[in-house]
Each structure stands twice: as C-alpha cells, then as structure tokens.
Amino acid sequence: MDVEDGERPFDVASDSCGQLRVHLSTDEDSEGDGPGLETFNDDEPALPPDLAWLEDLYEEDDDDGDGDGDRNPSVAADNGGKRSYAATARMFKLRRNLDQLDCFHRQKEHDVLKAREELKLCRQNIECLVKQRDDLENEIKRQKAAENSVAVFRLRSQHKHLCQRLQSEEELEGHINTDLKQQELELSEVAVELGRFSSLQQEVQEEERVFRVLKAQKAATRIQQERKAGQNLQLKMQRLRDKQAAMLMKEVNERQKNIEVGQVSRKMAAKHLKETIKRMHQQEAEREQQNRELLEKRIQAVKSLKSNIAATQESLRVQQRKAKANAQKKEQQQRQLRESLQAQGINSFKHMYQQKQLEEIERKQEEFAERQKSKRVAIAAKILEEEQLVNRRKRHQAVLPKPSTTDSFPSLGRAREKLLHYLDPSPQSATEERATIQLREVSDSSSSSSASSDAEDLEETMYKEVGHQSLTESLAEPEFSGLWDQNSKLQKLQDEKAMSVQTEVKQEQPAISSGNLNVIVKKVHGKELRGPPFLSKPEIIIFKDFEVGKMYKKKIVLTNISYVTNHCKLLGVSTHLKDFISVNFEPPGSLSAGMSCEMQAVFQPMINEDLEGEVQFASAVGPFSVPVQCTIKNCDLEVDSQFVDFGLHVVGQTISRTVTLTNKGALATLFSLDTAACLSPESSHVQVPTQVSANTCQDLSSENTTSENQRSSASIGTGELQPQQESQELSEVLQQEQSVSEASATGPEAVLEACVSTDVDARIDHSDGGDLSLGNVREGHIGPFESIKLEVVFTPTIPGEAELDFHIKFSDISSEPIPIQVRAVAVSVPIWVVQPSIDLKICMFDHLYQDSIVVQSRAKTALKLTFEVCPEMRKHMEILPKTGVIQPQSSFNAQLKFLPRCSLSKDAKKFFDSDTGVLEVPMTVQVAGQVKPVHFTVQAVVTSSDLQFDRTEVDFGYCSIYQTVISSVRLTNLSLLPQDFGFLRLPEFIEVQPNDGFGTLLPQETLEIDLIFCAHKAKEYSFQLSCKSGMNRDFHLTCRAVVVRPPLELSHSLVQFGATAVGDHSTTIIFLINRETNHNQSKQPINTETKDAMTLVAPRLFSFLPPKDSDISIAPSAGALLPGERCLVQVTFRPRLLDQEIKEEALRLFHRAKLLREKELERNTHTEKEEVPVVTSKGKKVPVVPNNSRVSDGPKTEQLTEPPNPVDIQPGSEQYEDARASLLYSFNQRYREYTVPCFVSDRIPPDDRQEQPAWSPFNTLDLQLQCPAVQPALVVISNNGLSTIDFHQVAVGEKVIKRLTVQNISKEPLDLRSSVLDVRSVFSLLNALRCIRPGDKHTLVLAFSPCLEEKYCETLEVRSQKMTLRMTLCGEGVVPAVTCSHPGGVLDFGYVLESESITQVFKLQNSSAVAVGFRVQLASLSPTRPRGGADMVAFLLGSNTDSQVQPTVGTQNYSGLSVFTVVPVEGSIAPGQSQDITVTFQPDHPSVNYSDRLTIELSNKSKVCMMDLKGAASSHNMYLYGGDLLKVPIESLLPPLIASDPQLAAESEVTERPTIPVLVTLRAKCNAGTITPAVRELQVGCIRSSQPSKKGGEFLWDNVASLQQQGFSVEPGKGTVEAGHKRTITVKWTPYSGYKPYDVVQTCVPVTLKGDETNVYRVTLIALVSTTAD
C-alpha cells in the first residue's frame, strides 16, 4: 500500500457494524530525506495520560547528567548514545498500535469462524426442512390416493408452513454467506497489514530490550543515591534525638514544678468548692421550699375553684327551680283567673290577650325609659368631654382677653343646645337646672384627657379594667389572641380616656353610676365572659368619604362568642343616627356558641358632617352594641420621612434626595413649600401675613365642622398640640387678631388666595441658602389618593455641615403644616470606604473567612492606596493586595482574609474580649499625598468549634454476648454556631442513638447520646469512638468493656407482646439452651476410674426472677439443664388491675358520692327552710311545716359518710367491684417494659453434688419484655365482674344452669365466638353467641352436669376481633347419699273399707353435702307403662299357679283415680335433712288385688328404694283371707252387672245371699314312713272404720264335728275380733286311721262372719299326703 506525504502509513477503518478502528503511525509526517530515514522533531505533541511517566523518567535522567560515570559502555554502544525522549515515546506508541492491530486481527478471525458456524448450521436446517418437505409431499400423495380429504387439507397446510420456513432459511443462508465473504475480505486485508509491519515489530522489540537495560541501570544508580541519603538522615535523626532528650529533661523539671503549684491551687480550689456547694445546697433547699409552698397555694386555689364551681352550679339549679315554681304558680293563677272569668260569663281569651298586651306595653315603656336613662348618661359624658376641651383651651389663652363662647365655638354651642333638646324636649325644672350647673362645674374642675364613648363603651371599659387587674395577677398572656381580643387594641385609647370620665361621674353622681355604669362580671358555666357576647365583623361599621344624597350599604356578621346558646335582638340605633341609618335585621333565634347571623346597615346621608353612634342589641347574657362611624371627605396628608440625611459627601458633588408626599384622603388640596421656619427670630414678623392667613383658613375650616367631628378626631388619637406650637399659635393670635377679623370678613375664597399668595412671597423673599436647596416642584395640586415626589438637592461647596428646615403647607384649613428637616455633611477627602464597618458575623478558630473591601475615589487623578493592619492582628488578618492604585472616580476592591488562631486572646488583648468573643479591629487605608488616612473597622464574633463530652472514658463493665448494655454520654456544643456531628467508622458491636449518631447541635446545646454496646464474641474490648464535627474536627471517646459468654442461651432476648386487653393474656414461647460440651475433657486421657464419674456431668441451674406484683408469669421459673439440652419456657403477660389501684378508686368514688350526698342534704335543708304557702279552701295561706323524718336521718347520714379503711375493702365486696368496673370503663392505654433476669449457676463438681452452687453475675441473662395493655372491649357485668363461674358441689347426674352477662364497651361491634368445649366434658354452653353492638349486652347460659364424683375445671374462651375473654368453669360432682327408712319390698296396707283411706309414712334421709332432688314414681302412672292391659297378657296366658304371683299393677279404681297416692311427688332434700313421704291407699270398690309399685328416683336417675304396694278393700268390716288362689289377680274395671229391675234384685238378695268360696289345700309330708300333719292359717279381721258406730265382729265355724271325723281341726272355732285387729285361725289336718295313701280328703265348711253385716264364707278343705310337701 502506498503512503503519501502528510498521511499516516496505516489507517484501517471498521465497517458500519462498529468494529475497532486502528491507526498506526511511524511519525513520518516530517520525513524529508526518504522513507527509510526517521527524524523526530523537538516539538512533539503532548503524551497521552498513560505515558506521562516517561517525562518524569527522563527528567531524572537529565538531572543525573554527566555525573553518572558508571554507565555500562556496552549499553551505551548498543543504544548509540543517550536515548532521546522522542525515541522512547515513539517506541511506546508503536507498541500500543501494534497490539491494537493484533487484537483487531484476532477479532476478525473470531468473526469469520462464527459466520462459518452459522452458515453450516443454516445449511443443516435447510437439508432437514427439504427432507421433511419431501416426506410431506409423499404423504399428501398417499392420502389423496386414499381419498382422505381432511388429512390432505391438514397436510397441505403443514406443507405450506414448511415451505415458508424453508424460504426464510434460504434467505438467511444467503445473508450469512454474504457476511462471511465480507468478513474474510476484511481478515485478508488485516493479514496483509500485519505482514507489511512485521519489520517494524522486530524493530520495536529491539528498542524495548534496550529500554529495559537502561531502566535497570537507572534503578541501580537510584539505589546508591538512596543509601547515601539514608546515612545522612540517620546522622540528622541522632542529633535530633539528643536535642529532644535535653528538651524532655527540661520539660520534666518544669512539669514537676507545675504539679507542685497545681497541688497547692487544687487544695485552695477544693476549699472554695466545698463552700460553693454548701451554698448551692442551701439555695436549692430554699427554692424547693418555695416551690412546695407555691404548689400548696395552687392546690388550695384549685380546691377553692372546685368549691366555687359546685356552689355556682347549685345556685343555678336553685334559680331554675324557683323559675319553674314561679312559672307553675303563674300558670295556675292564669288558669284560676280564666275559670273565674268563664264563670262570670266573660270571654276569658279576649281578656287574657288584652292583659298581655297591656303588660307588653308597660314593659316596652320601661325599656324605653331605661334606654333614655342610659343615653342621658352617655350625653352627659360627652358634654363633660366638651367642657374639658373648652377649659383646656381657656388655660392656654389665659393671657388673652376672654372671648365669648358663642363667638369662639358657635358650632359647640349649637351642638349643646341640640343635645339638651334631645335630653328633655320639655322646659327644664329648677332641679334639673341645678343638676346641669353641677355637671358643668364638675367638668370645669376636671383636668383629665378627653374621651368619646357611649354607655356601652363605658361599661365595657370598666369591665375590662376590673377584669384586666384580676387576670394579670393569676394568668399568663396567651400566645395567640382570640377573635374577641382583637378589638382591644382599637379601643385601648378610648378606654383609657373613658375611665377618667367615669371616675368623675361616679364621684359627683352616685345615682347615675349605680345604674348602667356598674358592670357585673358575667359567668357562664363557671367561666367569666369578658367583653360583648357577640363579635361583629367588621368590628366598627365605617362609612368613609360619603357624599350627601347617595346611599351606602354594608353587610355585618355577628358571631356568638359566649359559652352558651344565646340569642340576639335588635334594639335600635343611636338617636342622632335614626334619620340617616336603617338596619335590616331578622332575628335568627337561638344561636349556639360559634354560630353567626347577618344584618345589613343602610346609610343615606343628608348633611355633610361626621357622625358617630352605635347599633344596640340585646342578648341573653346582656346588651351589647356595634359602633358606627360616618366620615366625610377630608385630607390625610403624610410624608415618607420628615428627616433627610445626605451623609458624607465630597465637595463638588451634586446629590439629590426625594421626599414623597402622599394624600390618603378623598379631598384634593393645594400645597406649597415654605422655608420660613429656617429664618432667624428677628425676621419672624415679616411672615405675619402668612401665619395670619393660615390661621384664618384654619378658623374657617373649624366653623364648617361640628363638635361631633372634633370629638371623633380627638378620640381617634390625633394627639394634643405640642407646647411650642400652641405657644406659637397664641402669640400669633395676640399679634394678628385684627388681621384675622379682616380676613374672615372677606370670605373663604379671599382667605385661600391670601394663603397661596403669602406662601409664594415667602418663597421669593427667602431664597434657598447654603448648599441645600429645594427642587423645581415647590407648589402644586395633590389630588385624592395621590403621591408627589419633592426633590431636595445637596451641592456642597465648602467642607462642613449643612442644614435646611422647611414646611409643607396646604390650602386645606384642617391640615397642619408638615415640618421637614434636612442634614448633610461635606468633606474634602476624595477617598472613602464604601462599607466603613465590615461585619464578619460569627467566625470559628482555625477557619479562613474572606470579605471584600470596596474603596471609592472621588478624585480626578489616580491615587496610590496602602492597607495597613495593626501588628497585633498580622498573624490572624491579612489584606491583599497590600498596595494598589485606584483610578479616577472608580472603585478598588481588596480581599480581606481572616484566619483566627487560638492565640488571638494573647496577641490582641485590646481588640478581643475573650469572655464574649467579640473582636473589633480598627483598620486604616493610607492614601499617597493625603495626610488624613481613611479608617474602617472589622468586626467579628470569634467562637470555638469544640464539642465536649461530659466524660473521657466509658466503661460498659461486664456484659454477656446475649446482652445489650446502654450507657449515656452528654455531648455539648461550646460554639456559638450550630454544628453538625456524626459518629463515623463505628465498630459493628456498638450503636449510637438517636438518629444513628448524626445530628445538629444548637449553640451551647447539650445532647444526651446513648451508646448501645452489643458484642457477639467473648473477650475484652477497648476501642475509641470518633465523633466528627461539621468543621472536620475529630473528638475521641475511649470505651472499654469485658464480654463474657454465659453457659446458657436464650433463643430470644426481646419479647414484644401485642396489645393485650385487661383480663386477657398473651403467651409466647422461648427456649433456654445449654450449649456446653465436654470436648475439653475428652482430649485428656481417661482411665477406667474416672470414666464413670465423667458420664455424670453436673447440670446448670437457672432461675427466672420476674418483678414483684407484675403482670408477667414464667413457667418453669427454675430448673436444671445438662450440656446440650434445651428447655421450653412459656412467658405469659396478663394485664390486670392492682388491688391498690382498685382500693384508691373505691375511696375516690366514695368521696365523690359523699360530696353529692352533702350537696343533696344542703339543697334539701335549703328547701325546707323556705315555707311554701298553701292556699286553703277558705282563702288563707298556711305555711307548710317541713317533715321531721329528714331530720332524724341526720345521724345515719353522718355514719354513712365515714370513709372506709382501704384494708377493709376486700375483693368481692360491692365497693371493690364498683371501683374495678370504673377503672375498666375509664382505662387508658398502658405500656410497660420489664427486664427479667435469669440467674445461672456455676458448674458443680461431680464429686460434691450436695454443695449449694454459686451464682455468678457474669452468667446472668436478661429477658426484655415489652408489654402494652389496652382497654378490654368485652367485660363481665354479672357475677360481681368475675370471670370465674363456680358451680360448687352438684350431685352426680343433676344439671345446674348459671348465666353470665357480658357487655361491649368498645366503639365497634364485636362478633362473638366461643371455643369448643370438650365433648366428654360436663360443662356446656346452651345458647348461641351473636354480634353485639357498642354498649349492648349478651347473656351466656352455662350448664354443669357431673357424671362422676370428682372435681371439674375447664376454660371457655369467648373470642372477638379485639380480645379473648377467658372464663374458668369449675365445679365438683358429689354422689348423693340418700337412705330410705323403709327397707323396700312389700308395703301392705291390709284391708280397708271401700271409699275410705289409710296412710303410711316413711322418711328419706340425705347424708351428703349437697341438696338432692328426688322424684316418686308409681308404676300405674308411668308414661312408659303399656296401656290397655298389654302387660297382663303374659300373665293371663301363662301357667302360673302360685298364689303369690301377682302383676306389678293390680286392680284400679273405677273412678279413674289412682288407688295409691304419694305426697310429695318430687322435691329437694337439703344437706343433712330428711323428707317424709306419705303414701295413701283409697279404693273405691271391694277387691283383694289392689297393687302398685312405688319407685324413689333421684335427679341423677339413681333409684333409692323400690317397694310393692298392696291393699284390699271390702264393703263390710269383717273379712277372711288366706287359702289358695281361686282366680287370676286381674279384674275388669267395668262395674258388676246390675239387674234391670231393682225390686227383683232386692228380693233375690234377701232370699238367697251368695257365699264367698275359700279353698284351703293341706299337704301332709310323708318321710320314712312318718307322716307330718299339714297346717294352714287363715286370717279373720275387723276393719277399723272412720264411723264411730261400727265396732268389732264375730266369726263362727259351722259343722266343726264333721271336720274332726276327717282329721281336720280348727282353732279357734269361733270368736270375736276388735275393730282394727285380726285373729289367726289354724287349720290342721292329720290323716285319720284307715286313710289310704294317695287319697284326697275334701270337705266344705261354712264360716259365718258377723259385723255390720253377716257374710258366709264357704271354706273348702282339701287334704292329701305328699312326699314333696314343704
């Protein structure tokens, strides 16, 4: 490749893809001798940053120069001499470019390989796609042959998609192929370039070898030089050490002397310090005593305030009751009057309406009279004010002849006559005239200032005076004033002036002062209401700059600022404003505090005068008014400054200042500037016409204004005339009285012209003298609300002071001239400092501060300046440049540098105050050719930048790795400027708070900083904390600590409980772990004797010690842990109310109730003392005597008011529970933190396990607990507020129900849910829970039914969103021990006459400790008994022949009533008591089959006793029973059939009485040939009847002889039976001789029973011998 001149030999540019661009240059730009020669210019371009070190290298080489004689000659020969800087730089440039070219070649090779791989991959994809396409085409052909159209469509779609992919791959192949060709082309180009520069690369390698040799040679030379320098340095250091040793010895001697002096001074200081501390202790004790006395006074004040509030409330209640009683009495009187009128035939409604109208008219007249009276007082005050104004003017004009009042004050006389006419239009009486004369005399003698206010203003003034005196003694001034205090500033001057008038009126007119001027302080709800009850916005209704004939409207808002609901009623406006002002006001009704209402004031002026008055209102608290001011157009002229100071100026300059004259009024006027005031007194007579004209204009203006305008101007505060001005006016009036009269005769226009002309003449005659002069504008016209700038020019000609005084006069008579003073000083110095006092504000030591000094030149030539600094300040202050030249009429800036050092107080004692830090340095500027230098001052406040710790070392002591130790230090800012600070580079085991150790300290502020130390490695720590200030200063604090590792470890050292309600509890679980191991012991050799002892490793004992009376419980609180073990510890937080708090609350409630009872007693006593008259029927009033029963209750009340002893208030009492409920309802959030120590013992040796272990404080663990407690959302209001429900002892099997009521005391509804009780539990919740709203209650119905004899306890949880209320259910199951006096079995009632009854009684005894319920059941009345005789079927169908077998329930009464009755049927037996059970048998028809079964069952379904009841009934008193059963013991309940004919039945009964069959079977026993006779017994009885006529009976056996023949014997055969008794008849059978075995002997014998009737029983005797007989 050809290389042209001026171009680089190699320039390869990358393509658009952003490849690396390489430029290789051989610096042939300057070649002129040919391509083979390389020349380098000396002006080489600057090296790149990475080759900058070459320059330093060659500088060192140049420094060595010719002195290096040890250079290697071979290297010099190889190098061809000394290498130049350009050759070395060229070598490094070539090496860098060649490296870049190699990198570019490698990159191109990589790109080509990558493109080839992509092309190969693309071709493989194309081959795969072509193969898939061929297979798909074959498949399409096959499916077409199979005529599968669906598959053909699907395959065609796939074929189309495959063709598209193949086409895209082919396009990608072409693109990749093109890129590959391009990459290969670029690679070949780069390879060509590499081959071209191969010779150049060899040359660079050779140069690099030479450079390395040269560099090694320089390094050896440098090492030799460093060795020489090191030896010299050692010699210097030795000499320095010797010198330091001498100085150190000298310092030691001086230090010893200082120590001795310090010890002496320390003793003296300690003595004085003790005295100072003693004095401070005494002062502290005195202050403490004063604070205690002040606190006692405040407590007494609060108590008195409370008593006053209570008394006020009591008085209000009494007044309300009185008002209510009066209203009821009035209503009763009206009712009686109405009834009497109706009785007389008069229309009562009309009469009552007329009566009310008359009362309303009288009331309005009284109100009108009161208003007139108050207005008279106000007018009198205004008259007094005018009188005082007249007297004051009279005193000033005492030397003059006394002019007439009518001539001097015509408008005042007219106003007084109008006022007197308003006061009383009728002619005055003599008394009134005397009163008027007295008022005038009082006004003449008074010398107080004038005031302008109406009656309401006077009242408000007195009220404010009295209220202010009382408030300033006890209350502090509020930070922000309220709306009602805003009007105080506006009326302050009026109030002060009004007090003087009120004092005079009080002294001379006690009758008037006792009326409306006595202000009563109003109290509402115990608070004093000061000021009007309503606030007006705007506070004053102002109609400013009005014009006659126009109408003006203004809207006013009245706001109720009293403490109660109030109303507002319009009374009217002032009398003299009624013709001009009307008020549109609709009464709004009752207004709450803070509410507003609106009204509209309409003003239509008819006269051109200033008007003042008020709009009067009435309210529930008292009357109030809103002031009204109406002002005409006037001039209000003022200037921005009455004193003009030009300052210092150089002679020859021209300086101007402007004075702005502003007219704030709505009336235009003419003005002129008059410099006559600057003239000497001798020439003052020349200005008399001017003064006369001015006074004349002023008099004319006063004639056109009314006395009302004069009073308003005085009240607004224009102020009194100065004594000089007044004396000047008096002298002018004396000298020019005649000219005044002449001027007044000419008229106002002439006077105005005279005023203007005289001013012009004055300006002409008195031209501006001196260097001060007025501008071009000296007179003119100023319109309403305009401003005009008046120019004053200062042109100094000679050095010195210049003065000019002039007045601005106006054509408006009411506008006074405005004096202006002008002062200026002319100097001849051309050089001055623009800022003669340079204030550097607050500066810190060792910090640089700069400011500019600007010097200004008035000279017309250049001057040389020299800045001088006093020698004392040259170490701290510097001005640059020290010398300079200031150009003509220009400025020169110098730089002031101030660097205060710590030695400032010693160097500049006369300029620097070390106590306050104030520095004031005088500086001078010397001007060439000028004798007087220019002085200026530099001021600054120099302060320190120190931060001071209250201690130099912090010792954290011993702490464990699981413990956090906090130590506090105090950091103080000793500077007068705020300083930022921060603790930097803190170790990981310490933390600084607050704000992570960063913050800002205000001047002289002290901040308490917490250092939190928490290390995780057991070792001794000693470190320093670095506190860096914002001024980049470091303050160090040394800290040390010893960290130990306890043998036990807590899984969590901080437990944060959630917000837990009182009565609820929160539980958390932590682990206590013993991480000790026996590795150390295992490393030692173990013999067989100690192996068994080592297996028994001594445990570590631990013990938690929670705070006493805290809400924290820990389980287990103590225990032992072996190495490697861990223990689960449960920490529970149960917030509760302490007994002491509850007892204190109970005492507080008692005292409050006592106070209420005392107030009630006082109120009742006060009511009893008042005798309420009662109108009798005769029309006489009889006083009611109070009841004596209340008097008798006095001692009882006194006994109840005795405060209880807190010890006597026991839990569960009514006072205790009331106090507890009060605390729960008023409970606020409570947050407490506890630190629970866990003491860990030292290890006990295995051979001495009985020894008490030692507890080391280093092993103690701390458990931090954060416990917030909140108000419970759900409380128990029944069961005395207890959440424990004790069912006590309940019999097994019984169910006891109790109810518990809960209430929602939160502000949100609670959705209640309960925990699931144990299915096998004996407790149950019978009703469902629901959502209760705030304040609602819900009752829980709980049941207890024990099944075993044991104690039960279970917890029921009532859950809500905010808390869980846990209820403890407990009870004891007791097995009832009830015994019956009857042993059970059969209870036989015997025989009873039908329709009669018999009773038997047995007892149930309860021996258990609980009451037991029982129930007596009869089988006949059992609901489970089968009906319709179904239980008899088995018996009837059976083959039972035993006479003793009977069914459970036998014959019943025909009437349906039970045969057997029991009383009581059920009940309860108290513990240790008994219960009588009465069983009554009452049959209604004869039968011997009456039976029933009685069962006594307890409430637990256990049966105490079961007995069968049996009985028989007979229609006769005699009966016979016994023998065998002849029929089934079941009878039909149907009565026996009755014959249809009663006569036949009676005849058959007489003729043939039926007999009663009785069968007796006798079985004789035959045993071994011996026959034992058979014996049977029959019973004959006589029933005792309730009828006394029935007695005993007889029985008789017939044919006894025939019985004996057959072997039967009957004993007795006959006899008698007493009533209620029975006799046994024995029937015996002995086989007779000739009896054949197995024969049955049978005979029938009648037995006659005689009683009330005779009955015959036919007894059949059957006898036989049996071997099986019993």
Features:
single chain, 1670 residues, alpha+beta, six-stranded mixed beta sheet, 28 helices, 80 strands, extended
The Rg value, from CA coordinates, equals 66 Å
Strand segment count: 80
Largest sheet: 6 strands, mixed
Work out the helix count. 28
How would you describe this protein?
By secondary structure, the chain is of the alpha+beta class. It has 28 helices and 80 strands. Strands 41, 42, 44, 46, 50 and 51 form a six-stranded mixed β-sheet that branches. A six-stranded mixed β-sheet has the order 73-72-80-79-75-77, with no helix packed on it. Strand 3 (522-524) and strand 4 form a beta hairpin. Helix 3 (85-145) packs antiparallel against helix 4, helix 3 crosses helix 5 and helix 14 packs antiparallel against helix 18. The radius of gyration is 66 Å and the shape is extended.
Produce the secondary structure layout:
Layout: E1 10-12, E2 22-24, H1 53-64, H2 73-79, H3 85-145, H4 149-196, H5 198-344, H6 348-396, H7 405-408, H8 410-423, H9 430-445, H10 455-474, H11 487-490, H12 492-508, H13 510-513, E3 522-524, E4 527-529, E5 534-537, E6 541-546, E7 552-560, E8 568-573, E9 581-584, E10 596-603, E11 611-619, E12 624-632, E13 637-639, E14 643-650, E15 655-663, E16 669-674, H14 688-703, H15 707-716, H16 723-735, H17 737-746, H18 748-765, E17 772-774, E18 779-782, E19 787-794, E20 800-810, E21 818-827, E22 831-833, E23 837-844, E24 849-857, E25 863-868, E26 877-880, E27 883-886, E28 891-898, H19 904-907, E29 918-927, E30 934-943, E31 947-949, E32 953-960, E33 965-973, E34 979-984, E35 990-993, E36 998-1001, E37 1006-1013, E38 1020-1029, E39 1034-1044, E40 1048-1050, E41 1054-1056, E42 1060-1061, E43 1066-1074, H20 1079-1083, H21 1088-1095, E44 1100-1104, E45 1112-1115, E46 1118-1121, E47 1126-1133, H22 1139-1169, E48 1173-1175, E49 1181-1183, H23 1189-1192, H24 1194-1200, H25 1214-1225, E50 1230-1240, E51 1261-1270, E52 1274-1276, E53 1284-1291, E54 1296-1304, E55 1310-1311, ...
Parallel strand pairs: 6-12, 14-21, 23-30, 32-39, 41-51, 42-51, 53-61, 63-70, 72-80
Antiparallel strand pairs: 1-2, 3-4, 5-7, 7-10, 8-11, 9-10, 11-12, 13-15, 15-19, 16-18, 16-20, 17-19, 20-21, 22-24, 24-28, 25-27, 25-29, 26-28, 29-30, 31-33, 33-37, 34-36, 34-38, 35-37, 38-39, 40-43, 43-47, 44-46, 44-50, 45-47, 48-49, 50-51, 52-54, 54-59, 55-58, 56-60, 57-59, 60-61, 62-64, 64-68, ...
Helix pairs in contact: 3-4, 3-5, 5-6, 6-8, 6-9, 10-12, 14-17, 14-18, 22-25
